């Protein structure tokens, strides 16, 4: 996981965040602090299911506490736009155990 200055290069870019409780949140990184608390804009949570496509729950402007973040990654917007999430099936993510 990137800390501090590593996140600076991702400001105003779409990122993907996996939280410790297994949530997958996608949004535009607007800011962060020394504790890796992050601010996302235009964010949504992707909820996975083996029975139906991926649900996207709109969150809007959203803050995630740094101690609840497991993984932060840059999202390839072109590749992501070409995915048909309505046909994607997957098991929900399980909580991360540290």
UniProtKB/TrEMBL annotation:
SUPFAM superfamilies linked: Sm-like ribonucleoproteins
Entry superkingdom: Eukaryota
A GO MF term: mRNA binding
Gene3D superfamilies: 2.30.30.100
Main location: nucleus
Keywords per UniProt: mRNA processing, mRNA splicing, Nucleus, Ribonucleoprotein, RNA-binding, Spliceosome
Secretion signal span: none
Alphabetized SMART domains for the sequence: Sm (SM00651)
Ranges for domain Sm: 2-78
Location(s), subcellular: Nucleus
One Pfam match: LSM
Keyword Chloroplast tagged: no
Job of this protein: Plays role in pre-mRNA splicing as component of the U4/U6-U5 tri-snRNP complex that is involved in spliceosome assembly, and as component of the precatalytic spliceosome (spliceosome B complex). The heptameric LSM2-8 complex binds specifically to the 3'-terminal U-tract of U6 snRNA.
Family of this protein: Belongs to the snRNP Sm proteins family.
Oligomeric form and interacting partners: LSm subunits form a heteromer with a doughnut shape.
Protein name in the entry: U6 snRNA-associated Sm-like protein LSm8
Native species: Elaeis guineensis var. tenera (Oil palm)
Gene that this polypeptide is encoded by: LOC105057450
């Amino acid at each position: 996981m990137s800390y501090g200055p590593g996140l600076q290069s991702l400001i105003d870019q779409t990122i993907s965040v996996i939280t410790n409780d297994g949530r997958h949140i996608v949004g535009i990184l607007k800011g962060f602090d020394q504790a890796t608390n992050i601010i996302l804009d235009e964010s949504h949570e992707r909820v996975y299911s083996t029975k139906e496509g991926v649900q996207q729950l709109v969150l809007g402007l959203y803050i995630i506490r740094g101690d609840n973040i497991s993984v932060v990654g840059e999202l390839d917007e072109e590749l992501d736009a070409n995915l048909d999430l309505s046909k994607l099936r997957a098991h929900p993510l399980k909580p991360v155990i540290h």
